Amino acid sequence: MNAKTLSQKNMPEGSTKPARTKRRARDQIGPALAAVFRHGQALHGRQMDWNALLSLEAQERSWLLDWREGTLQVLVESSVWLAWLRRNQKRICQQWNSRFPDEPVERIVAVVRPWRPPMLTSRPVNRTQIAGPAPDALRKLAENSDGALGAALQRLVRTLDQAGTVASESTKENGAFSGEE
Predict the structure, then answer these.
(1) Fewer CB within 10 A of the end CB, N or C, for the chain?
(2) Neighbour-count burial of 42, counting CB atoms closer than 10 A to its CB (0-12 exposed, 13-18 middle, 19+ buried)
(3) Looking at 8-101, which runs of residues are DSSP E strands?
């Protein structure tokens, strides 16, 4: 059986070089990809310059998207920062123009997009609710743990045990019943 490695799969039979069609496609895509990469690098550098024009609070809540034809395109976290940009537009444009005289700007166009931290997992979180007395494994772990962790686990065990006894009665009634004993 002739087993081919992944790198040999796209090669003509008996050849050690990839097919020319693949190379041509890569060469055509290469310049466009290189242009996107260069623009990304320039944007990264300008983001640092943009941050230098802003207060610390605004730096964390606004991002430079692009600059062209006398306009700075900015993304802001909320309408509060949009209003802040409008109030400070003249000062920011003057500072930008003094820093980059070859690319002067006259106005700032901002878009509001609330920022949400990325989800850690792509699947939904399965939240387990424990009803009733604390599981034996948790009870043993609480007994064997020392220090603050052990104390916290003991409190959790007591809370879960208490929640298990309150199946049909209210907490107020349970308090009254336990005080009568």
Answers:
(1) N
(2) exposed
(3) 62-68, 71-76
pTM of the model: 0.47
- Kindly report the number of other CB atoms within 10 A of residue 65's CB atom: 15
Q: 101 and 139 in contact (C-beta within 8 Å)?
A: no
Tokens of 127: 């939240």
Residue 116 structure tokens: 């949400």
Q: Which candidate, 2, 30, 28, 1, places its Cα nearest to that of 11?
A: 2
Confidence of residue 107 (pLDDT cuts 50, 70, 90): very high
Of residues 175, 136, 179, the one with CA closest to residue 157: 136
pLDDT in tens, 23-65: 565 566 677 788 888 888 888 888 888 889 888 888 888 889 8
